[in-house]
Amino acid sequence: MTHPFIERIRRGPLLGDGAMGTMLHARGAALDQCLEQLNLTRPDWVREIHLAYIRAGAEIIQTNTFAASRPRLTDFGLADQTREINFRGVKLAREAREISGQGVLIAGSVGPLGRRVRRGQQLMVEAAEAAFGEQIGVLWEAGADLLILETFSDLSELTVAARIARNVCDLPVVAEVTFGNDGVTADGAGPADVAHALAQLGVDVAGINCSLGPARIAEFLAEMHTAEPGLRLSAMPNAGLPFRAGERMVYPSAPHYFAEHVPLFLRSGVALVGGCCGTTPEHIRAMREALDALVKAPAATASAVPLSAVPMVRVSAPGPVEAEAEAPEPTPFLQKLRAGKFVVSVEVDPPRGFNAAKMLEGARIAREHGADAVNVADSPMARVRMGALALCVLIQQQVGIETILHFTTRDRSLMGLQSDLIGAHALGIRNIIALTGDPPSLGDQPESTAVYDVDSVGLVKIISAFNQGLDRSGKPFGSRAAFTIAVACDPTRPDLVREVDRFHQKVSAGAHLTMTQPIFDPLLWKRFYELYEERHGPFSVPVLIGILPLQSHRHATFLHNEVPGITLSEAALARMERAGADGRREGVKMAQELLLALMEMPKVQGVYLMPSFGRYEVACEVLDVVKRERP
C-alpha cells in the first residue's frame, strides 16, 4: 500500500512549514513555558499558526508536539496529560487542514527525550523505547500522516526512535539530526555516519534541522548525499544563529536568503525543505516561490472537468402535469442499480473553511479507483462546514463524477427544504439521501436551534411528491423532478425491530435504495434482512453496505466506544489488536474480506466507503478487490 507522502515525494520536492515555537513566542508565550501545553490552553494560537503556514504554501505541517513525550512533560508537571496534549496537537493540525481545504499532510513531531532517560551521558534504552512508543502511538491514533523525528543530537537516540516508530505504526518516517558548526553530532557522528545509519534503518527521508543556517546545512547535506546517493534528504535550517534581545530571540536570516538556498538544497539531493527556529510564514512563502520557479508544482486540485461531462437528467419544459405523462429519465446512478450493476460510492466531508481542494482531490481519487458516485455529508456531527450542496456542484463540475447529497431536516424549515431541493435539481444534483441529522447539541454550535419540521420519513415523502410534480401542499410544479431517493439504515442497532420498522416506513414513503451505517460483520446484514422480510415481506430496494476501513486498534476502540452509530464485533476488535503496527493494512484486508462476503448476500448491490482522517487512498484500496470480483 503506497502512502500519499511517498507518492507525493516521488513526484518532486515537498515544502514543509517553519517554526512553531518562534511564532508562539511572538504571540506572547514565555521562553521558559511548555509550548506543547498551549494545545490545551491556547488552541486558537496553534491552529492559526498552522493556517498561516498552509496559506504560505506549505504542503506539510508539523504538530505542536516536539517536546510532548512523557519525560519532557514531567519537567512541567504535565506527565498525566501526555496523551491529551499529543492527541490535541494532531487534532488542531487536522482542523487547520479542514479549514484551509488544502490537501496538506500532517507530520507528527517527535523530539529528543531529555535528561530523564539518561544516566549521565548514557541513554536508558528501555525507558526511551517506552516514551517514544507512547507518544508515537498517540500521534498515529489521532490521524498523523507521517512522523518527523527532529532535532536529535544523539544518533543512537534517533536510532531508537526510528526503530520504535517502525514497530508501533506504519507511518512514513522522516529522521533529522542536528549538527554543531564542526559538522558532528553531540555523540560524534558526521554527515556520512548519519547517512549510512539512517539508510540502514530504512527511514523514508533523512536530513538535518535546527542548529545552523542554510549555508552550513547545505554543506553537510552534500556530504550525506555523496555517502548515500539513493537516500532522500530533508533540510530544515534555522534562520541563522540567534541572539537575545531583551525577552526574545532574534534570528538574522531573511526570507529571501532562504529562497536563494533552495536550488542549492535540491542539487544536494533534498526532497523535503522547510524551516526551523526563527523561520516564519514569510520564509516559507519565499521558499514556495523559489520551488515553483524550479519545479513544476503539483496541482493542488483535481483538473477541471466541465459539468457537461457528467450525465445530466433532462426535465421536460414547464407544462401541466398529467397523470399519464412519462416520468423523467432516472439518474445514471439509479440506472446502474436497476440494470443490476454493483455500484461504489465514497464519502467526502465538506471543508470547515472556504477551500475545497482536498475534497476535490478525494473525489478524483475515488473516480480513478472506479467509484460511481461521491457522497457529500451535510455538516456531520452537527459541526459547521461548507454547504454540502455547494461541494456537490464543485465535484460534478471539476471532477466529473456523480454525487449523492446528504440532505438533513435539522437546519431547514419546510419552506427551506423545498427551496433547496428545487435549487439542487436545477444544478444537476439529483441523488439525495434523506436524513434527519445529528442534533446541534452534539456539535460546535450548541446554541443553534434545530428545526425538524419533518424527520427523514417526512423528507422522503416530500422528495417523492417532487418526483410526481407536486410540492408538499399538493400544488403542481408543471413538470416532474427526477430525484433518486436514498435512505439510511443501521443493522447494528440493539433494538433491531424498531430499526426495521422505521426503515420500512422510509421504503414505503418512496425510497429507491438504502445505505447502511458501517458494519464489520456480514451476519449483521443477514439478520437485518431476514427480520425485515419476516415482518414486512419481500425486501424491495437495493442496498449499499457501509464499510469503514479501520486504521489501528486504538482507532477501532474509539469508534466502537465513542462514535454514535458505529458498533464493532469483538472479532474485529481482537483482530485489529493483533495487527499492531500493521493496523492500516489489516483494516483494508478486513474491509475487503467483508465486502466479498457481503456481495454474496441478498439485495447487496454496492458499497459505501467511509474514509477516516481524509485518507481517501486507503479507503479506495478496498476497491481493488471490487474491481476483480465486480460483475
Task: Give the gist of this structure.
With 631 residues, the chain is α/β, with parallel strands linked by helices. The model is unreliable at 297-325 (pLDDT under 50).
Give an overview in words.
With 631 residues, the chain is of the alpha/beta class. β10 (243-245) and β11 form a beta hairpin. The protein folds into two domains: 4-294, Homocysteine-binding-like domain (TIM Barrel, Alpha-Beta Barrel); 307-313 and 330-554 and 585-629, TIM Barrel, CATH 3.20.20. The chain is built from 24 helices and 20 strands. The model is unreliable at 297-325 (pLDDT under 50). It has an eight-stranded parallel sheet with strand order 1-12-9-8-7-6-3-2. Strands 13-14-15-16-17-18-19-20 form an eight-stranded parallel beta barrel, surrounded by six helices. A two-stranded antiparallel sheet has the order 4-5. α7 packs across α8 and α11 packs across α12. 43% of the residues lie in helices and 14% in strands.
How many individual helices?
A: 24
Q: Using only CA atoms, what is the Rg?
A: 27 Å
Q: Widest sheet: strand order? A: 1-12-9-8-7-6-3-2
* Residue share in helix: 40-55%
Provide mean pLDDT, rounded: 89
Q: What CATH first level of the largest domain would be assigned?
A: Alpha Beta
CATH architecture of the largest domain: Alpha-Beta Barrel
Give the N-terminus to C-terminus distance in angstroms: 25 Å
Write the CATH fold name of the largest domain. TIM Barrel
Could you say how many structural domains there are in total? 2
Q: What is the CATH superfamily of the largest domain? A: Homocysteine-binding-like domain
Sheet-strand content, in percent, reads: 5-15%
